[in-house]
Write a structure and sequence with these properties.
Elements: H1 3-16, H2 18-32, H3 36-39, E1 41-42, H4 61-75, H5 83-100, E2 104-113, E3 125-135, E4 144-152, H6 157-175, E5 183-190, H7 195-206, E6 223-231, E7 237-238, E8 240-244, H8 255-268, E9 272-274, H9 280-283, H10 287-303, H11 310-314, E10 319-326, E11 336-337, H12 339-357, E12 370-373, E13 377-380, H13 381-384, H14 386-404, E14 417-420, H15 423-449, H16 454-477, E15 487-490, E16 493-497, H17 500-520, H18 524-540, H19 547-572, H20 579-590, H21 594-613, H22 618-624
Parallel strand pairs: 4-5, 4-6, 6-10, 8-9, 14-16
Antiparallel strand pairs: 1-13, 2-3, 3-5, 7-11, 8-10, 12-13, 15-16
Helix pairs in contact: 2-14, 2-18, 4-6, 4-12, 6-12, 8-12, 10-18, 14-17, 14-18, 15-16, 15-17, 15-20, 15-21, 16-20, 17-18, 17-21, 18-21, 19-21
């Protein structure tokens, strides 16, 4: 026997045992997730052009005192009437301070409806004003720039004053440095309406050809290459730096911008860097702690909701992160207060900006596909993708088996065989189920947009699911063949006709394989969670001989969405009653992938699996007669 023939025999035997192998591979795929902590590598800076550690910081104690003075001055700028008026007054103070120091300053204002939920559309109108300043590089050609962003209107007034005080002094020090080779932009955004929305509005103006016609003038610097969004929620007190990197639907910046900032923060001031509000998770290196860190990181990507203003830059292909200076009661962390805090923050920002200033090109050495295990370890795509590949392969073999050999027992002694499927009917049912699922998703969005509460949206959509399922199964049963599959022979080749449910099951699994393979490269955590939930349905769904078990299986399939909602809500620490309403809100506001996945993949797979289980199997009817 030749090697090729031997390979054919091996593949044939694997395909014939596809159901058992598929279940085994599914269990192996789930178990592979447990290897993540062992496969993780320590983070490192891959971009040598940052020249980390090669320069001395110039932000000193005197600059910290100046920053503290700025914060004290800004604390006196506020309004008793509203936060909006306070923000406007502070932006005007910042503009005056920049003009007094000889920097270019510009503002872009937008009038918007502050009460968008008003049915008459006559809500309070107010002006959103974003201010930006430019420090032209002494040694640059004006083609590139770095951005420092500070949000106003969302923090405590004292904390906001400290944020602006640090940022203004860093902008002065770095902006006048003789080594500056890229233009430096300082952007103060009116974050009361949403820091992401305000930043997007400013970036749209910045990249518009009509930017010079904006009221108040609007000048550009060079192309923005990197950006840092800075805030100090606890004012002049800092123990750690919280970093946010998630953009829309789990999009991340180049990993080097995070690792560079981490190196700068820890080496300059000894500040711990974490992805959480406290550093506890980042300091827990146990196996359970690592798995918990993986889940928290992946969950933020699954929701698809951007976590800060840095996401607006990522939408324009600009590497950016959000930085929050936080205080902690953890005794393992060193806490800076007063002018020491201003010095630590100022030096961290200065050296981060200077590292980006050293770059000659965009960040490209490191990767955009990664999963963090705390702040110190990560998984590259080569490590984390293995479970998803195994889960998808567990579905490929049964598809090959049903397509090639059908659902019956294959006889080795039989002549050459071919299978015949009713593909037209299966594709028709698949099209119907997609249309019904899309309609259900559209209803969910419209109910949310109409102002209904999250819990009411969830209850209505869940109540409609059985109705849509009954409608689909009623349509599917019409014209379904109830006779035994026929076997014919043509030119010595045996043609095995398959029951209608076989083609439906093949298309169901093929749909999951195709969509989840594509989703893997856009939002891996969402693809992994969805595949892990749907693969058992695809593998185990088949007509049940007993009428009692058939009804029980159908009821179990109907109950699965509710069980999934409770399980996911438990991990997300949210109310199960708000699940679908929250999902619709996120999609309407952020265009997240989660809702299309639910109503474009999960619901169709459930309905098609129920269709297979409740199929009028010809063999079952033959036995009953």
């Amino acid at each position: 026997m030749s090697a090729l023939n031997a390979l054919v025999v091996v593949v044939k035997n694997l395909v014939l045992r596809a159901n058992r192998i598929g279940i085994l591979l599914y269990l192996v795929g789930l178990s592979t997730v447990l290897t993540y902590p062992k496969l993780a590598r320590r983070v490192y800076v891959d971009e040598n052009a940052f020249l980390l550690g090669s320069t001395e910081k110039i932000f000193n104690a005197a600059d910290a005192n100046v920053a503290s003075g700025y914060a004290d001055a800004l604390e006196g700028v506020w309004s008793e009437r509203s936060t909006s008026e306070t923000t406007v007054k502070r932006l005007e103070w910042i503009t005056s301070a920049l003009d007094a120091r000889g920097f270019e300053s510009y503002y872009a204002s937008t009038t918007f409806d502050a009460n968008k939920s008003s049915d008459e559309g006559g809500g309070e109108r107010r002006m959103m004003m974003n201010v930006h300043a430019i420090a032209r590089a002494a040694r640059g050609d004006g083609r590139e720039s770095i951005a420092l962003v500070t949000p106003l209107g969302k923090l405590d007034p004292r904390a906001e004053a400290a944020t602006v005080g640090v940022a203004l002094r860093v902008f002065e020090v770095v902006g006048r440095a003789p080594w500056l080779a890229k233009d430096l932009i300082w952007l103060c955004i009116d974050a009361e309406t949403g820091e992401i929305e305000s930043t997007m509005d400013w970036l749209k103006t910045y990249h518009s050809f009509e930017s010079r016609s904006v009221d108040g003038g609007f000048e550009r610097a060079g192309t923005i290459q990197q950006a840092f969004v800075f805030s100090a929620p606890h004012g002049a007190e800092v123990s750690m730096m919280r970093v946010k990197i998630e953009g829309w639907n789990g999009a991340y910046p180049n990993q080097d911008i995070y690792t560079m900032f981490k190196r700068v923060a820890e080496s300059t001031s000894g500040l711990r860097v974490s992805f959480d509000e406290d550093a506890g998770g980042g300091l827990d290196n146990s196996f359970a702690g690592s798995l918990k860190s993986v889940w928290r990181f992946m969950w933020r990507a699954i929701t698809g909701v951007p976590t800060g203003a840095h996401a607006a830059f990522k939408a324009h292909s600009i590497d950016a992160i959000s930085i929050e200076a936080r205080s902690s009661d953890d005794k393992r962390l060193r806490t800076y207060r007063g002018t020491d805090a201003y010095a630590a923050l100022g030096q961290t920002l200065e050296l981060s900006l200077r590292s980006c200033n050293n770059l000659l090109e965009l960040l490209h050495h490191s990767c955009f596909y990664y999963i963090m295990l705390g702040s110190d370890k990560f998984l590259g795509i080569a490590e984390y993708i293995a479970p998803q590949v195994v889960l998808l392969v567990s579905l490929v073999l049964p598809v090959a088996r049903l397509t090639t050999f059908g659902a019956g027992n294959f006889s080795e002694s039989a002549a050459e065989t071919r299978t015949s499927h009713n593909w037209f009917r299966a594709v028709s049912e698949f099209t119907i189920v997609l249309a019904l699922s899309a309609s259900l998703g559209g209803i969910c969005i419209h109910l949310s947009d109409a102002g209904l509460s999250r819990s009411l949206v969830t209850l209505i959509v869940l109540a409609l699911c059985p109705v849509f399922g009954f409608v689909f199964c009623s349509i599917a049963k019409r014209g379904e063949s109830t006779t035994m599959p026929r076997t014919s022979k043509i030119d010595g080749i045996v043609i095995l006709s398959q029951e209608d449910w076989v083609a439906v099951k093949v298309i169901n699994m093929a749909w999951v394989i195709a969509t989840m393979s594509a989703c893997t490269f856009f939002n891996f955590p969402l693809a992994l969670l969805t595949t892990a939930a749907l693969a058992p349905l695809c593998l185990l769904s088949a007509p049940v001989q007993s009428e009692t078990f058939r009804r029980a299986s159908t009821v179990a399939l109907c109950a699965l969405p509710i069980l999934w909602i409770f399980a996911v809500s438990r991990f997300a620490e949210s109310s199960p009653m708000d699940a679908l309403g929250l999902l619709a809100e996120h999609h309407s506001h952020w265009r997240t992938f989660a809702l299309p996945v639910v109503f474009g993949i999960i619901v169709p797979t459930l309905l098609l699996s129920a269709r297979v289980v409740s199929s009028a199997s010809a063999r079952r009817k033959q036995k009953s007669t």
